């Protein structure tokens, strides 16, 4: 309860920050997209990871203002990088509750217009759980966004229960394979078999595939051999504050 009061104040005082983690193409290791990940710069407790406050925000009905802040901040950052000659696509995580809001498409488009960012430079990451909660509603919302050029990815795929039938009807362009599946792949043949099958299925449906939580070069090589399109994880870069990310990007290219 004290935390809810703290979070209300944090929203008013602009205490949240975004860190950015790249996704790279496995073919040439070029950065294809950058995921925005929120942290709370708490006045006394230091920098808090999302696991420590997002569940409280979601339960207390404060996710909506946070999602709005994250969207605006990430889109403005992408627009600023673009003006500086770095046209990077930014990916924003959309919570289950935010996905089901009627005005999400209008809000997203207004933020893009305000920042003069092309819609193709924004990707929304939605979890399979969020989509499963209300598939018709989710498909309706995502179709409107995709019609305007916003990319949509299913996040944490393979961690929960996704109906494979749902993949046929969802207006998505990308699928992110959950780190729990990918990270054990080199030691567990069954994990590799499932990962391979997911990659093949996604490609047959016309989606690009990103593997999450990649921590070693050996895993990068194996994923490339399986025709996975992109990788994200500590072997490439941890999530970094904007200035540190810009430094990383300069060294990477
Ligand atoms: O950054 P980290 O790996 O600790 O993120 C942990 C979880 O928090 C991930 O599942 C991620 O999707 C989620 N998360 C991070 N930033 C945001 C955000 O801005 N909005 C939402 N809804 N989830 C986020
Ligand atoms: O669910 P989502 O993919 O949005 O969350 C990404 C989370 O995974 C972030 O909290 C991020 O800090 C974390 N993460 C990113 N790369 C790695 C990695 O290589 N290994 C591990 N263990 N966690 C990672
Ligand atoms: Mn994500
Ligand atoms: Na994920």
UniProtKB/TrEMBL annotation:
Q: Domain EAL spans what residues?
A: 1-253
Indicate the secretion signal residues: none
Instruction: Please state what the protein is called.
Output: Diguanylate cyclase (GGDEF)-like protein
């Amino acid at each position: 309860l004290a935390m809810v009061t703290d979070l209300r104040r944090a929203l008013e005082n602009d205490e949240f920050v975004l860190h950015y983690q790249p996704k790279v193409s496995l073919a040439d290791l070029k950065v294809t997209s950058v995921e925005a990940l929120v942290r709370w710069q708490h006045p006394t407790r230091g920098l808090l990871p999302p696991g420590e406050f997002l569940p409280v925000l979601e339960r207390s009905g404060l996710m909506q203002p946070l999602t709005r802040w994250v969207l605006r901040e990430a889109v403005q950052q992408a627009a600023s990088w673009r003006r500086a000659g770095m046209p990077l696509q930014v990916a924003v995580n959309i919570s289950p509750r935010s996905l089901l809001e009627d005005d999400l498409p209008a809000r997203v488009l207004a933020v893009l217009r305000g920042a003069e960012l092309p819609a193709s430079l924004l990707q929304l990451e939605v979890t399979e759980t969020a989509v499963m909660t209300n598939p018709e509603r989710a498909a309706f919302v995502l179709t409107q966004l995709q019609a305007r050029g916003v990319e949509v990815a299913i996040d944490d795929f393979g961690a929960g229960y996704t109906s494979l039938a749902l993949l046929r009807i969802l207006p998505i362009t990308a699928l992110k394979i959950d780190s729990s599946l990918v990270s054990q792949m080199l030691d567990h043949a069954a994990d590799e078999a499932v990962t391979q099958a997911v990659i093949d299925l996604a490609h047959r449906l016309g989606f690009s595939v990103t593997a999450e939580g990649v921590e070693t070069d050996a895993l990068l090589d194996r994923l490339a051999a399986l025709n996975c399109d992109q990788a994200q994880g500590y072997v490439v870069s941890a999530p970094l504050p904007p200035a540190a990310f810009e430094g990383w990007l300069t060294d990477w290219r």
